[in-house]
Amino acid sequence: MKDEAIRTEVEAWLDKHWSAQRTLFEWRNMLVEGGWAAPQWPKEWYGKGYDQAQTSIVNTAFAKKGAVGAAQSGPGGLAAETILTHGSDDQKRRFLRSILTGEHAWCQLFSEPGSGSDLAGSSTKAEWIDGRWILSGQKVWNTSAHHADYGILLARSNFDLPKHQGLSYYLINMRQPGVEVRPLKQMNGHASFNEVFMTNAMVAAKDLIGGEGNGWAVAATTLSFERQGFSSNRGASALQGPKIGQVY
C-alpha cells in the first residue's frame, strides 16, 4: 500500500472512531479490532504487516489527532515481541490481545542475586512434575512486578548441561500462592523495583515458550528488543500508555 493511501485510511478511521470520551478499555479494543494497535505486527495477529516507515505514518496520524495508542511498552512489549517470535499460536491467542488493550500487565524475571549480570548463570529451578513445571528460586530488580499479572521468566530446567543449554523460558502467572513480591525501597522513598520469590510456583505445560532447553535463544530475542527499542526493531508505535487502572 502506498504511503498516501495509508495516511488517508488511518486519518479517516481516526476521524470516525476517536473520542476522548470513550473508556480506555473500549478504545483499545477498537484499536485491536481495526488493526491499529500494532500495525507493524502480522495481519493474522492484530496488525497490518506494515514496515517501519509505514508504521511511522500511522504514528504521525495518531499524534496529529491526539489519540491514545496501545499499551505495549515496557515488559508487556518485550513479552509481546518474544511471543510473536517464539510463541505457539495458542500463546499468541491467549496473551497478545490483552497486552495491547492493557488488560494484563507484565514483568521481566531475569536477574538473580547470585548471578549478577550473568544471565546464563540463572539458578532458579524448574522441575517437570506431574505434567506441569514447578519453579523455585529468587529474582531481583524486577520493575513493576508488584502489579504484574504475568511474567516472562528464565529458569534452569536441567542442571547437568552447560549453563547456556540447560535454560528454559516460561510465561508465569504472578497471581498465584507460590509467588511472593517484595518491593525494594529506594533512597527517594519509592519502590519501582522488586524482588520476587517463587516457592513451588506452577507453570502449565502450555506456558513453556520455545521448547525445553531453548531458553537462552528465547531470552536473547527478548534482550535484543530491549536493547534496540521497539521503534527501531519492529517500528512499534511510540504512542503507548499504561495498563488499565495502572498508577505510576
Structural class: alpha+beta
| Helical stretch tally | 7
CA-CA gap between termini: 39 Å
Mean pLDDT score = 89
Which residues sit in consecutive blocks of at least 5 with pLDDT less than 50? 230-248
Spatial shape? elongated
Helix content, binned percent = 25-40%
Q: Give me the count of strands.
A: 8
Strand order of the largest sheet: 1-4-5-8
Largest sheet, strands/sense/barrel: 4 strands, mixed
Radius of gyration of CA atoms, rounded to a whole number: 19 Å
Oligomer: single chain
Strand content: 15-25%
H/E element sequence: HHHHHEEEEEEEEHH
Any descriptors?
248 residues, alpha+beta, single chain, 7 helices, elongated
What does this structure look like?
This protein is α+β, with helices and mostly antiparallel strands. 34% of the residues lie in helices and 21% in strands. The protein is built from seven helices and eight strands. The strands form two sheets. The protein has a four-stranded mixed β-sheet. It has a four-stranded antiparallel β-sheet with strand order 2-3-7-6, with no helix packed on it. A hairpin with a 2-residue loop joins strand 2 (125-129) and strand 3. Helix 4 (74-86) packs antiparallel against helix 5 (89-101) and helix 4 (74-86) crosses helix 6. Mean pLDDT is 89; it is low at 230-248.
List the helices and strands and how they pair.
Layout lengths: L2 H15 L6 H11 L17 H14 L8 H13 L2 H13 L4 E4 L15 E5 L2 E9 L9 E7 L10 E7 L5 E6 L8 E12 L3 E2 L5 H14 L1 H4 L15
Parallel strand pairs: 1-4
Antiparallel strand pairs: 2-3, 3-7, 4-5, 5-8, 6-7
Helix pairs in contact: 1-3, 4-5, 4-6
